[in-house]
Amino acid sequence: MSSLSRIANDIPKTTISADLAQGRKRLDSLWNGVIPGIVLVAMITAVAFSARNVSGFALFSPMILAVVAGMIYSNVLGTPAHAKAGIAFSQKRLLRFAIVLLGFQLTLGQVVSIGAGGVGIVAATLGATFLFTITLGRLIGVDAKLTQLIAAGTSICGASAIVATNIVTEARDEDVTYAVASITLFGTVAMLGFPLLAPLLGLDQHAFGLWAGASIHEVAQVIGAGFQNGTQSGEIATVAKLTRVAMLAPMVIALGLMARRGSSGQSAARPPMPWFVVAFVAVVALNSLVTIPAEMKQAMALATTVMLTMGLAAMGLQADISQLRSRGLRPLALAFCAFLFIGCFSLMLVKLI
Asked: Cα dist. 197→133, 255, 273 in Å?
């Protein structure tokens, strides 16, 4: 005890007080910087979830409503300066973690269940739509980063793909918001219109499920359209769509390689594959090998939706409508053409196979 006392006495009191002061400073910085922003994002997220109970809003996912609510708040009331750190945290860290959790919604067995032909339709549609959108965007003069976001959102999985792609492309927040808004618009049109076209096009439940899963933008929109046409159609559509979600990882890797090749200096030395892509693939593999209780999967699905919604609410908070107007109608025309292409191309493949 005496030796311990001597050691304690030998420690300079100024060092202890300095460490305590530094700790308090970090806590104050956390409270005054990150926490207010997270609270604001959480409030907008709660509004988005609550709005779905209002007649007419149930058609939209909470992620989309959160973007709109965030934009209204920031452009009408303004975003507080002391909340920016927490908003940035929600936009980056929470979104990346949510994308990892998306892996729990997919197993390799589900992919196999739609058959080699179904997987081929999904893969071919994704690749062709992405290349078509990138090429058309270049021809009509749409910004390259915004074009990549629209291409990813149309060909893969809507807002989630836009968010994941932006981690590599590093586009402006206004571009992300524009891409999400345009993808939401045309995805909603597909969700409402495709079930009406099924009998006119002579599609049975299996064929319609493949078409909806391979072409409609958001997971929620695919589920809505699929089950509108029948239970079997809804199940096939969901599996086909989740197969597209699984292809998010190789697509982001490819974009990372493109970004690395097109850059120079220090940025070129960065690894092309973000950590969340590796984690996403690992989660899909784990979900395929280990049986996870249904209650736990439901909880993780809810957590994923909440975090994705918070991330998109944060994007809405940082979106400047005047910047969106400056983009003009060309990006919207690009998103519309991509929407038409993915619908027609995937329908052609479904009819052929």
From this structure: 24, 34, 40
Distance CA 173, CA 156 (A): 20
Each of the 353 residues of the chain gets a pLDDT tens digit; together they read 555 455 445 555 555 455 455 545 555 555 556 888 888 999 999 998 898 888 777 767 787 788 788 888 888 888 787 888 888 888 778 877 887 887 787 777 777 778 888 889 999 999 999 999 999 999 999 998 899 999 999 998 887 788 778 877 777 877 888 888 888 788 878 887 898 898 999 999 889 999 999 999 877 678 778 877 887 788 788 788 878 887 887 887 777 776 666 555 444 434 344 566 678 778 888 888 888 888 888 888 888 888 878 887 887 787 666 666 767 789 999 999 999 999 999 999 999 87
User: Is the model's pTM score more than 0.90?
Assistant: no
